[in-house]
Write a structure and sequence with these properties.
Layout lengths: L30 H13 L3 H18 L2 H17 L3 H17 L3 H16 L7 H15 L2 H17 L3 H17 L3 H17 L3 H16 L5 H20 L6 H20 L2 H17 L3 H17 L3 H17 L3 H16 L2 H8 L8 H21 L4 H27 L5 H4 L12 E9 L2 E8 L2 E7 L3 H15 L7 H12 L4 H6 L4 E5 L24 E4 L18 E5 L4 E3 L2 E3 L5 H12 L4 E2 L5 H10 L4 E10 L7 E3 L4 E3 H13 L6 E9 L4 H8 L1 H5 L3 E5 L6 H16 L5 H13 L7 H4 L2 E5 L3
Parallel strand pairs: 1-4, 4-5, 6-9, 6-10, 10-13, 13-14
Antiparallel strand pairs: 1-2, 2-3, 7-8, 10-11, 11-12, 14-15
Helix pairs in contact: 1-2, 2-3, 3-4, 3-5, 4-5, 5-6, 5-7, 6-7, 7-8, 7-9, 8-9, 9-10, 9-11, 10-11, 11-12, 11-13, 12-13, 13-14, 13-15, 14-15, 15-16, 16-18, 17-19, 18-19, 21-22, 24-29, 29-30
Amino acid sequence: MHAPRALSLFITVGVLACLCGAGVSLGALTAEQLTASAEKAVSGGEFEAAIVDLKKAAELCRKKGDSTGQCDALEQLGGVYHSLGQHRLAMEALGDALSLAKEIKDEARTAAVLADLGALNTFSRNAAGAEEKLREAVKLAQKSGSKAAQATALNNLGSLLAAQERDAEAAGVFRETIAAAMAGGDAVLTAQARGSLANAAVAGGDFSHAAALNAAAIKAAEALPDSHDKAFALLRAGKTWELLFENAPAHDNKRRGDAMKAYEAAMKVAENVGDDRALSYGLGYAGHLYEQEKKYAEALRLTRRAAFLAQQSRSREALYRWEWQTARLDRAEGRRDDAIADYRRSIKSLSQIRNDLTIRLGNVNAHSSFRVEVGGVFFGLADLLLQRADGLADDKARTAALIEARDTCELLKSVELEDYFQDDCVNLLQSKRKTIEGISATAAVVYLIPLPDRTELLVSLKDGLQRVKAPVGTEQLTDVIRDFRIHLEKRTTYEYLAEAQQLYTWLIKPLEPMLAEHKIDTLVFVPDGALRTIPMSALHDGEHFLIEKYAVAVTPGLTLMEPKPIKRGNVSLMVNGLSKAVNRDGAEFAALPFVEKEVSQLQSLYGGEPLMNGTFLTDRVTKGFAEKPYSIVHIASHGEFNADVKKTFVLTYDGELSLNQLEQMIRPSQLRDQPVELLSLSACQTAAGDDRAALGLAGIAIKAGARSAFATLWFVNDEASTKLIIDFYTALHDDPNLSKAKALQGAQIKLLNDPRYAHPCLWAPYLIIGNWL
């Protein structure tokens, strides 16, 4: 059996190879015939048929003792699984192939499989190891003398560098790829690398050369025999023309025409080889061009056909896109009910591939997120459902529309957290969800939905759901929030008041009549986007802060908390503190002089043996928690919430506690039905304007497996922090019926009334997150 070309990391905007096709009869074919059948199936886009053939080929080779043939079949199988977005199965197949390649001491095959693994890791949870694997693959391929292996390894390395926005380096590697591919006679990879080089030029701002490079890529693609690879090379070129139109200063409309020509050429190839998936993408992309030009009838005709083909080939990653596009087109032409149905179908299709998308989009190399890429589907449906509610006279039907709109946004919040944390930590809490309406007679849950032209506030009260619309769209709201957060952290000024009052006018004042009518004393906010980065307690009505009227808590979502009062009868506290200055990997962390007092006071309230400074060691924290269940875990140390979850940590004396370590420590107690009631992190911080980092803070209790968290939006290195924390815990200790939100309110008001600490910079950043009771 010949060595197949290794998987090429062919990054296309909006394209994941989620291909399926009909199976083929295996009969008594040889391994060589099965491999040839699989290659033919891949060429026509029938990836599921290829999987059947390759599995059989690998098994036949294993039985014959043909390790070389088995390695080749497994490598190809890994590539097909990767194209389908089936990460785990791809890793398994490639892992077995790598073992075989090393066993037979074949450097070229080892290099090829390492190149595949590097490609697979580029957009996975193992992204950190991608570059090392790819560079090792390049070295081994060069040593082996195989131009084919060199070309593939270089191409995948170039794609990784491009994903990391190292555009100049990527361009250099793609040129090396082209030279190696041409020397090895690999016309397909030559065309793909030329397309990647053109795309890198656009990304790097080299607009003067990008057009010529893309024209060369098209010429190379056109020279290929009709195949799946040729169709997608042309589709890629069309997307590059679109990017050039959007990013180059000239905005030359000719580039849209060039894109359409490329799509039409790709569609012709796809029709010739019977590749429904490639044809679906060509039609969908062409429909999007017509959508941009507001030629909605033609756009809809093409998009509906694209959706039909995606459904026929079970290409769900394509299907949800075209259903979303259809929804936008129906909405643009005033067919609201049709658009709602389209959005619902798109979300249903999306739900079937969302795990693969969260792995890819949550990856550091993606420079994006699930919310950025597909959040518009959820908000589009929510917006139309809220509009529909306006015209419904029947109370039951109107409430149902409001709840569906809220549940649609709720689904996005759940997936956002999976995307950020790169795991499905939300599932445990969702399985225990209770209805939020009627949970507390004196609490109102305010669900905030920012939309382009307004902000919707859905308020859950003891007698049901009510709705208020604020006349401020997402863009203006975000601008004011950004200024508010920046000014709020300036202890020496009162600039924050203008934004505090404006936000109060938009978000709180319209609610005041219903809050007064229901005698509400606690507001639980479910914020979204930039609203996660600010403390709602610091909003101001012109005379008083919001915290002076209501206790305030936040939760990342309604399905992401278990509203149950804290058990006060036998509270056990684990308290940890770091008061000394430390240097960690060149970063200086200042001393926290009041932490010792904070820890001492908490010990006097709840007992226990604190871990302080030299005894606050990562292993001792883990061991201590394993030996005894705790209802409250308090950590008084530096912590940071970063947009990248891997850079989020809590400092210990000898290292850092990652969120994964916190989860491993705390989560088992939830599984034993003895969950940690409160996880407290004093002295943590998130950067102003970093919505993704704030998402991590919002979800810390969920990730760790605690019912609620007590944490700060920014670092307050001051005696005020210790005063507030001690007052908060004392109130919880002394009054078994007091909610956590009320305990925090009392502590914040106490600081607010002290002239030394009246500025909200000192008391506002403290949040109760999750279960506020």
